[in-house]
Structures are given as C-alpha cells and as structure tokens.
Specification:
By secondary structure, the chain is mainly α. Helix content is 73%, strand content 0%. The chain has one domain. The chain has six helices and no strands.
C-alpha cells in the first residue's frame, strides 16, 4: 500500500507532466515547423498508461483529448476519441511494451500515433475539410524520435517520487 502522502505527490507529478505537455502543444512555432510538432500529450499519456495503468487510463485520455479539442478549436470529441483509443491500445499492451528496448518501444509508439493521426484525418475528412499533405504524418515520426528522452525523464521522475 502506498502511503497517502506519496500517492498525493505522485498524482501531482502526473498532473504537472500533462500540464507541461499541453503547454508544449500550445507553444507557437514557425509555419514550416507546425506540422513537425511532436504529439506531446499523446506521448505523456502513453508513458503514464504504460507506467501506472491503474491510475492513468482511458478516462484520462478522454479528458485530455477534450482539453486539446478546446485548446486547438477542433471538433469537440475528435482528440478525445483519438487519445482514448491510444490509451486503450497502450493499456492492452503495456506489459509487453515495458520489456521492449527503447528503440522498439519508439517504433511501436510511432504506429500507435499513426493510428491516432488516422482517426483525426478520418474525422476531418468526414466533415468535408480538405485533405492533408504528407507532413500531416510527421508528428508520429518526431514523437518516435523524442520517445527515448521523454521516457528516461519521466521514468527518473517516477522513481524519484516513488510513483507506482
């Protein structure tokens, strides 16, 4: 059993990591770099679903997606559906993902994020918004490249504050 004080501190760290991810998502970038922005919220969600699936799951993914929908002025529920699916996929495979080397985890996360981006594309296509160019898929690649560093940073914080 986790002492109450450690559980509160752990919840605080999880919330703060999502706050930082949302802030990084809102950070203005030059026009050429907008389509290369990593999927920060999705990466943090995948990490916490993999590390503590009993605390962070589909409901948190749905809530963070709604927050992104409001922040990005997209269709309400679009990111929520995508992040809930992402949380579901991660929770279904977290035991295998934990034992994979970081490079293999990064490739798997790239496929997860490609499925997330496909859901976003299908929803925007369904309402008649224009098609995207090839750079639409780049956040999956940049997120894959950033995964090892994000994983190490969040893992070290999780171990420092005894979150389990």
């Amino acid at each position: 059993m986790i002492p109450l004080e450690e559980a509160k501190q752990g919840n605080w760290l999880i919330v703060m990591s999502f706050v930082v991810a949302v802030m990084l998502t809102a950070l203005p970038l030059p026009d050429w770099a907008v389509n290369w922005r990593p999927a920060w919220v999705a990466l943090v969600l995948i990490y916490w679903c993999m590390a503590v699936p009993d605390r962070v799951g589909i409901a948190i993914g749905w809530f963070m997606g709604l927050l992104l929908d409001v922040q990005q002025s997209t269709i309400l529920g679009q990111n929520a559906l995508g992040l809930a699916l992402l949380a579901f996929l991660t929770i279904k495979s977290y035991q295998r993902m934990r034992v994979y080397p970081l490079a293999q985890q990064a490739v798997l996360i790239c496929f997860y994020l490609l499925s997330y981006k496909l859901i976003m594309l299908l929803i925007t296509g369904y309402i008649g918004m224009g098609t995207r160019d090839w750079t639409y898929w780049m956040p999956a690649i940049t997120s894959m490249l950033l995964w090892p560093w994000l994983f190490i940073i969040l893992r070290d914080l999780r171990r420092k504050y005894h979150i389990s």
